[in-house]
Amino acid sequence: MKNALCAAIITACFLASCAWAGAEEKVFAPQDLPRTFTENPDGAKAQYMGKTVQIKGIVVNKGMSRYMTPYVEISESGKVPAPARCVLPYSGMAYWNRSAQLSDFEQGQTVTFSGRVHVIRENLVLLKESKVVE
């Protein structure tokens, strides 16, 4: 009885970890999440807010936010408007030196970011704590 219960728990944990890993692997296009929001705002917020997602697109713009955090904007076509803004994490640098984090990104470059959904609207998804996925 004890062994059967342990086996059931181990199997359930394994299956849950496989499902979680599979969900993490889906890569969205920049406009996918805003489109989902347009179709069902409450459902999109419930499903994606605070969750980590991956978005692949072409760098359109990069810069510093009004909070002095570096960001990269990406779109599927490489043209404005960019429906995804990926904010890079605070790295402990002095605010005047944070723009150095942007030196790896060039307009027209294809990149995949992983980040936590912070804002989702009909024309924008904002990812926080974004990092490049190799």
Task: Explain what this protein looks like in three dimensions.
The chain contains three helices and six strands. The protein is an alpha/beta fold and about 130 residues long. Strands 2-3-4-6-5 form a five-stranded mixed beta barrel. A hairpin with an 8-residue loop joins strand 3 (about 70-75) and strand 4. The longest helix is centred in the N-terminal third of the chain and has 24 residues, at about 1-25.
Task: Summarize the SSE layout with pairings.
Blueprint: H1 2-25, E1 27-28, H2 32-39, H3 41-48, E2 52-64, E3 70-75, E4 84-87, E5 110-120, E6 125-132
Parallel strand pairs: 1-2, 4-6
Antiparallel strand pairs: 2-3, 2-5, 3-4, 5-6
Can you summarize this structure?
The chain is an alpha/beta fold and 134 residues long. The chain has helices at 2-25, 32-39, 41-48; strands spanning 27-28, 52-64, 70-75, 84-87, 110-120, 125-132. Residues 4-23 have low confidence and may be disordered.
